[in-house]
UniProtKB/TrEMBL annotation:
It comes from Colocasia esculenta. This is Hexosyltransferase. InterPro entries: Glyco_trans_8 (IPR002495), GNT1/Glycosyltrans_8 (IPR050587), Nucleotide-diphossugar_trans (IPR029044). Keywords: Cell wall biogenesis/degradation, Glycosyltransferase, Manganese, Membrane, Metal-binding, Transferase, Transmembrane, Transmembrane helix. Coiled coil: none annotated.
Length: 598
């Protein structure tokens, strides 16, 4: 009937052009609306004729996924118990595993039904059941911005992620799993259910390997998304086959990871001994450790030599903590010879790299080459690396960080970690993956921090004190009092201070020049400034000239001071006379140290 109305409308229009009224337009619109509604409902209900036969290929979700969506809609959020009748899709054949021995054993199925897979000859597939996390459970519950890490109140706690009863699966020899993948939906990587399935698989694998002391365990993971590299090392992926990612996972590494809290809702590293107010005694701290392996502190300098002084002071700080790890500095061609010699004299082993461009960055922007940090993953002669930014001052021994798996870092804001200090595990496969994703992943700040936070969404929280950010976000005297107390105390309680804003070596030593720049004042702390200069003053005198000021930088400092005076900032740092000798020292023409300010 509806098309009749349409035809009628045309005839009417011919007869009475002048009377073509709004009412008719509305009618036509309603008709079309009705038509599309019918199609819409048909698609939504997906009656069998859309499903059957060859049509199966066009169905977007697997049966298990569709089925579970319905289960959620029922509001229980619990994995179905499996008695329900499932429609039949072609069964997935579990891939064979490499190596000589046949995989003639019991296979634990995670998020996969027994009727969905075809086991090989002699294989027996057994479902591993667990309660699915509720839809209300969001990533930010696992990665809160702030936790009570100093245990002023109850101390931090994590929400529970349901796990299977592992005692029922003691006999499992290998694991096959379907990993949820909501890509390219926004936020697909921060999916709690996806993490849950990964953790179930990892825990089964670790338990299986512990049983007979074997170091390896075989996994077959079905997903159109790459399995989380935070859990399954890219190195250990041996093959892709028909939608499956096949792994031979080494259990030592996996064990380190399942020993971590489920999110940054708890510290990876306890700060206080249990039930005491004393700082934790790290010598008692034990997490499974492989036999002695090569480890290093590493920093990266690229695109300009503005951070050379920072890197010298950084080496100074690290060496003074008595570490026996290597110090490695990656640099590109922007560091001239005399400065390279100074860096080596400061204790760095230098390695030249080719810097890496962010294909999404604007040409000649200040962070165009910030992806150079990816080269850290190419240091495969080291099992673990603690990366430290050159604008960090290390005050206490950080060797305990080598106990932690990739990716361990301190919180920045929201669910994001700060990339100023990171524990990473070099790997050519991870490096290749980072390079491959350069074009696809959008970094929220155009820098490496934004990028790495999209790749390593599951990270482990180190205490704030490991990488204490020099900023004051609340603009209260309470915050200033607390933080300045920590920045200044000697012997230090902070492990490292991260100098955000204008760097101390680009200011006069008299005060923190962040005070004089309107949008940098949140980073200003004279106490932290003095702490950095103490480190400077114990540097070898032959290295101190590498912290000089260029004529241009002196002009900028003067300019900022005048603007601060005009603005009349109430802290009145602009009134202070400068006694810093560097004000009158000329830099040698070959050593224009600071070309730009960041
Ligand atoms: C990683 O790649 C480099 C060369 O690209 C090679 O020299 C090194 O041995 C590789 N490391 C491992 C562990 O395979
Ligand atoms: C890019 O690198 C420079 C130099 O290391 C640093 O000052 C800047 O903060 C970085 N930018 C971002 C957005 O990470
Ligand atoms: C910080 O507080 C002072 C007064 O306590 C106020 O004058 C100033 O505008 C505040 N700054 C910001 C950035 O909110
Ligand atoms: C800075 O120096 C001038 C002259 O040398 C002096 O009059 C003034 O009091 C000094 N200001 C401060 C804050 O010390």
């Amino acid at each position: 009937g509806s098309f009749g109305v349409c035809g009628g409308a045309e005839r009417e229009e011919k007869k009475m052009k002048a009377l073509a009224s709004k009412a008719q337009v509305i009618k036509i619109n309603l008709v079309f609306l009705g038509f599309f509604l019918v199609i819409y409902v048909a698609l939504l209900l997906q009656p069998p004729f859309l499903y059957d036969g060859a049509g199966a290929a066009t169905v977007r979700c697997s049966l298990r996924d569709c089925h579970m969506k319905k289960a959620e809609e029922d509001g229980n959020g619990v994995m179905p118990k499996g008695e329900e009748k499932r429609r039949t899709l072609p069964k997935k054949t579990i891939p064979s595993f490499p190596g000589k021995q046949r995989w003639n054993a019991r296979i634990g199925l995670v998020n996969l039904g027994e009727d969905e897979v075809k086991a090989g000859a002699g294989q027996r597939a057994v479902e591993v059941r667990f309660d699915r996390v509720s839809e209300q459970f969001e990533w930010k519950h696992l990665f809160p911005e702030w936790i009570d890490e100093e245990e002023d109140n109850e101390g931090p706690s994590c929400p529970e992620i349901p796990m299977p009863d592992f005692s029922e699966h003691e006999e499992v020899d290998a694991v096959a799993a379907r990993l949820p993948c909501r890509y390219p939906e926004a936020g697909w990587a921060r999916d709690v259910f996806r993490l849950q399935v990964h953790l179930v698989v990892a825990n089964l694998a670790v338990r299986r390997a512990k049983r007979d002391g074997r170091g390896q365990v075989r996994l077959a993971l079905l997903s159109s998304c790459r399995p989380m590299i935070e859990i399954f090392r890219s190195e250990e992926m041996v093959r892709r086959e028909d939608g499956w990612w096949v792994y031979e996972a080494s259990v030592g590494r996996l064990e380190e990871k399942v020993a971590m809290p489920v999110g940054s809702c708890k510290l990876a590293l306890p700060l206080w001994g249990e039930g005491t107010n004393d700082e934790f005694d790290y010598s008692k701290f034990s997490i499974p450790m492989a036999p002695p392996r090569k480890e290093a502190y590493v920093t990266v300098l690229h695109s300009s030599d503005a951070y050379v002084c920072g890197a010298i002071a950084l080496a100074q700080g690290i060496i003074r903590t008595g570490t026996r790890r290597d110090l490695v500095l990656l640099h590109d061609k922007s560091i001239p010879d005399p400065k390279r010699r100074a860096l080596a004299a400061a204790g760095w082993q230098l390695r030249k790299i080719k810097r890496i461009r962010n294909p999404r960055a604007q040409k000649n922007s200040y962070n165009e080459y910030n992806y150079s940090k990816f080269r850290l993953w190419q240091l495969t002669d080291y099992a673990k690396v603690v990366f430290v930014d050159a604008d960090v001052a290390v005050l206490r021994n950080l060797d305990l960080l080598f106990h932690f798996p990739e990716m361990s870092a301190t919180g920045n804001d929201g669910v994001i970690f700060n990339s100023g200090i990171m524990v990473i595990e070099p790997s050519n496969a991870t490096f290749a993956m980072l390079m491959e994703k350069r074009g696809e992943i959008v970094s929220y700040n155009g820098g490496d921090q934004g990028f790495l936070n999209e790749v390593f969404v599951w990270w482990h929280r180190l205490p704030r004190r490991v990488n204490f950010l020099k900023n004051f976000w609340s603009n209260t005297s309470a915050e200033a009092h607390l933080k300045n107390g920590l920045f200044g105390v000697d012997p230090p309680v902070l492990y490292a201070i991260h100098y955000l804003g204008l760097k101390p070596w680009l200011c006069y030593r008299d005060y923190d020049c962040n005070w004089n720049v309107a949008d940098q004042r949140v980073y200003a702390s004279d106490v932290a400034h003095r702490t950095w200069w103490r480190l400077h003053d114990v540097m070898d005198p032959s290295l101190q000239p590498f912290c000089g000021l260029s004529e241009q930088r002196k002009t900028e400092l003067d300019w900022d001071r005048q603007k601060a005076e005009l603005a009349g900032f109430p802290d009145a740092h602009w009134k202070l006379n400068i006694s810093d000798r560097r004000r009158h020292e000329k830099q040698t023409p070959h050593d224009p140290l600071t070309r730009s300010r960041r």
